[in-house]
Write a structure and sequence with these properties.
Keywords: Monooxygenase, Oxidoreductase. To bacterial alkanal monooxygenase alpha and beta chains. This is Alkanal monooxygenase. GO terms for molecular function: monooxygenase activity; oxidoreductase activity, acting on paired donors, with incorporation or reduction of molecular oxygen. This protein has 356 residues and is of the alpha/beta class. 42% of the residues lie in helices and 13% in strands. Strands 1-2-3-4-5-6-7-9 form an eight-stranded parallel beta barrel, surrounded by eight helices. The two termini are 21 Å apart.
């Protein structure tokens, strides 16, 4: 089977169902580490995208988050336009745009423009969560009554704008999302539970699951997606991608990789406690006085990170792909330090067998 974008992707270590190559991709959050600025983080993301293209990664997605000092990718469309200008073949996309935060027409215009700038390279991944706290979500929506539970209606409206096919008599029938090209970006539904899995299946759309922060729900959600899948003009069979945290180190194995990954774990702990900030350094994470409950949280979070030597990570990713039946893996190394992230992604690409 071809990929959800009509391409088979780069030849990699594993193979998807049906024997087609299983692509490996990257989810990046423009991570802002302690001691660094958002400008430095965005420059690092740009360099990472250029390397990802050279290494042979299939996609490079960025995610919408708000009010998080450790994440600089608050406006995916703007960042994707920039990344497109610094790459030439790499697929770029949102992982994702939080649909309830925006008017569907605005998203249709943004991604229509991106598709016009970088034709055939843009993915539009959509999420139903706000990606922030309730107060920030309210500020983004400016009094709109649209909530996550209204996601199917908002999605239908967005699809009509992208396809320019509102029925006669609809209030928006005479409106156009400009620019509007011959092709629209592929639409992906993102999720961490069963809601978007069922919806993606019913609509025949590709589905991306956030295994990296909802690992217990991965297999049930993918089973729901496949059970409810209805062939469409987009796909004739299900296509599932899962996001997974992974950290590879050149030496020191699992212990050294865990030392790096703990910085992201402490950052997530602080976020859950309502104390978001830049990603702490690994030493800060090692020295932090964890309470028993906090230590349990960190251990649980790290248990879902594929980490170790390049070979250990490649084997762990392949085991996860086989266990879940995912057609594509999207790795994310949300750790402190641009060089450590660059090294991790490069080692994973080599060990997994990517070819630029």
């Amino acid at each position: 089977m071809s990929g959800a974008d009509g391409q088979t992707g780069s030849e990699v270590r594993g193979t998807a169902r049906g024997g087609a190559p299983a692509p490996l991709s990257i989810l990046d959050l423009a991570t802002v580490g302690a001691g660094h600025t958002p400008a430095e983080a965005l420059a690092a993301t740009t360099e990472l995208a250029r390397h990802a293209e050279q290494w042979g990664y299939h996609r490079f997605w960025v995610a919408e988050h708000h009010g998080m000092p450790g994440v600089a990718s608050s406006v995916p469309a703007v960042l994707l336009a920039h990344l497109g200008a610094h790459t030439s073949t790499l697929r770029l996309g949102s992982g994702g745009v939080m649909l309830p935060n925006h008017a569907p027409l605005a998203i249709a215009e943004q991604f229509g423009l991106l598709e016009a700038l970088h034709p055939g390279r843009i993915d539009l991944g959509l999420g139903r969560a706000p990606g922030t706290d309730p107060a920030t979500a309210a500020a983004l929506r400016r009094g709109s009554s649209d909530e996550a539970d209204d996601f199917p209606r908002l999605l239908a409206e967005l699809l009509h704008f992208l396809d320019a096919d509102f029925p006669d008599g609809h209030p928006y029938a005479k409106l156009s999302a400009v620019p509007h090209g011959e092709h629209r970006p592929p639409i992906w539904l993102l999720g961490s539970s069963g809601f978007s899995a069922r919806l993606a299946g019913r609509l025949g759309l590709p589905f991306a699951f956030a295994h990296h922060f909802s690992a217990a729900n991965t297999v049930p959600a993918l089973e729901l997606y496949r059970r409810y899948f209805v062939p469409s003009a987009v796909l004739d069979e299900p296509y599932a991608l899962i996001g997974v945290s992974a950290v590879a180190v050149p030496e020191g194995g699992a212990e050294a990789a865990r030392y790096l990954a703990a910085s992201a774990g402490l950052g997530m702990l602080r976020l859950r406690q309502g104390r978001p900030g830049p990603i702490p350094t690994p030493q800060e994470a090692a020295d932090y006085p964890y309470s028993p409950a906090e230590a349990e949280f960190l251990d649980s979070w790290l248990a879902n990170v594929v980490l170790g030597s390049p070979g250990q990570v490649a084997d762990g990713l392949e085991e996860l792909r086989k266990r879940t039946g995912a057609d594509e893996l999207m790795v994310t190394s949300h750790i402190h330090g641009h060089q450590a992230r660059l090294t991790s992604y490069g080692l994973i690409a080599e060990a997994y067998g990517l070819h630029g």
